[in-house]
Design goal:
Layout (H helix, E strand, L loop, with lengths): L11 H20 L1 H4 L1 H18 L6 H8 L8 H14 L10 H11 L16 E3 L5 E4 L6 H14 L4 H15 L6 H16 L8 H7 L1 H14 L3 H44 L7 H8 L3 H13 L3 E6 L2 E6 L2
Antiparallel strand pairs: 1-2, 3-4
Helix pairs in contact: 1-12, 3-4, 3-5, 3-10, 7-8, 8-9, 8-12, 10-11, 10-12, 11-12, 13-14
């Protein structure tokens, strides 16, 4: 029996986009910015959640989503708050999810839609139509009794296909939305799964704000779905998604450069304060640096250690304590 294959074309534009994304991913990996910067990872994750939920008419701003995830109380519709907490929960568990498992897909839906719909964690049992943000019907989802088999075929193809993961993940995303396996939550699960698949190609992809970029281009997102529906193949949707992935990489590289420059400036100012202090004092101690630079003891130790390594300071033992003086 011949295995099912979703219809799409690999065009020159797609090949070029894959090459550009691979090059940008290499640049971001080379900078080691995301792995070394938990603030940037968290910022991108919050943007991802806010963007994906905003596409589904969640009203919360980026600042409100940040406040919720920081444990603060905000005044907002309980449903919107619950959507944020659920989404953060499942995105935080991506490392544990097998992207080719139906059981894990159902579990992800259960977490994402917990206390939001009755059928959380189960395929739908009723027909459903797919509409855009203005309420226009894009297409009808698959007949309910066919859904489990179609999803199983799609996951199997995605696991076994020789196509590049950048392309496979886009095809999965489109075909998943076409099937529309759940009563609600299909969009957010489709986008989550797209990111999950990309993260298996390169872990850095788990931290890109792709969903935020899609939200910014929401009309183009629906247009790409419509064009693919009309042509009977996902080629246009692949092109749109690859352009969004590329945009998210450029965005993250730019942000990491800005944060790196800001961090370097802050470090430079701290060291300058220490050197100015030593123009008036014979030596400086950890406690002085903590007060001078408003940093923790560990950060003060690191800064002083770097200045010793750079031959700016010498370390001395004075009255039973470590102290630091200017190098002569």
């Amino acid at each position: 029996m011949e295995r099912w294959t979703p219809p799409f074309e690999i065009t020159n534009q797609i090949v070029d986009a894959v090459a550009e994304i691979a090059e940008l991913t290499g640049r971001l990996n080379g900078k080691d910015t995301l792995s070394a910067n938990p603030m940037l990872r968290r910022s991108n994750r919050i943007r991802t959640i806010q963007g994906s939920l905003a596409i589904e008419q969640n009203t919360l701003s980026l600042e409100q989503v940040t406040a919720i995830l920081n444990g603060k109380h905000i005044i907002a519709p309980p449903k919107d708050i619950k959507e944020v907490k659920n989404a953060y929960d499942i995105y935080s568990r991506m490392d544990e999810i097998n992207p080719y498992s139906i059981d894990d897909l159902l579990l992800a839906h259960k977490v994402m839609m917990s206390d939001l719909i009755a059928e959380a964690g189960a395929f739908r049992t009723r027909p459903v139509g797919i509409v855009d943000s203005e309420g226009h019907v894009l297409h009808l989802g698959a007949t309910p009794h066919l859904v489990p088999g179609l999803i199983s075929e799609l996951l199997s193809w995605c696991r076994d296909s020789d196509a590049h993961m950048l392309i496979k993940s886009c095809v999965f995303h489109y075909e998943f939305e076409l099937i529309h396996p759940f009563a609600d939550g299909n969009g957010r699960i489709g986008r989550l799964w797209h990111t999950l698949l990309l993260s298996k190609w390169n872990p850095i992809m788990a931290w890109l704000p792709i969903e935020s970029i899609i939200h910014d281009r929401q009309q183009e997102y629906y247009e790409a779905i419509n064009k693919s529906n009309d042509s009977g193949k996902s080629t246009q949707f692949i092109l749109f998604m690859l352009s969004s992935i590329k945009a998210s990489l450029i965005d993250t590289i730019s942000m990491s450069d800005e944060m790196s420059d800001a961090a370097k400036y802050k470090e430079s100012m701290r060291k300058r304060k220490i050197l100015e202090y030593l123009k008036k004092h014979e030596y400086i101690m950890n406690a002085n640096v903590r007060e001078l630079c408003d940093v923790s003891a560990a950060t003060a130790n690191r800064i002083l250690g770097e200045m010793v390594s750079g031959n700016e300071l010498v370390k001395q033992h004075i009255n039973g304590h470590w102290a630091y003086a200017l190098s002569t």
